Amino acid sequence: GGEGAGGAVDVRAVGELRRPVALGEIKKAAAAGEVEGMKDFALIRQARLSVMPVPVEVWDWVCEMGGGFVQDGEVGEEEAEG
């Protein structure tokens, strides 16, 4: 379709970051050129996207900034000790 045409995407949560990564952190990294492809990342260019492709380099950076990615159902170290 043309502009404004909608689409459907199936999504589901597969886990979570240990800490949230703020949009400001992502924009700062993009401005500094820290991560390949970050300046062209849709989240930086268009403010109100809810589903978008994420380049691998950007995903890896976000996971690192978030303290690691914990997949759904895994027990983290702090949970295992408690």
From TrEMBL:
InterPro entries referenced in this protein's UniProt entry, alphabetically: 5hmC_binding (IPR052181), EVE_domain (IPR002740), PUA-like_sf (IPR015947)
Residues forming coiled coils: none
EVE domain residues: 8-65
Pfam families given in the database record: EVE (PF01878)
One cellular component term from this protein's GO annotations in UniProt: nucleus
PANTHER family listed in its UniProt record: OS03G0676100 PROTEIN (PTHR14087:SF8), THYMOCYTE NUCLEAR PROTEIN 1 (PTHR14087)
Protein name, entry field: EVE domain-containing protein
High-level lineage: Eukaryota, Viridiplantae, Streptophyta, Embryophyta, Tracheophyta
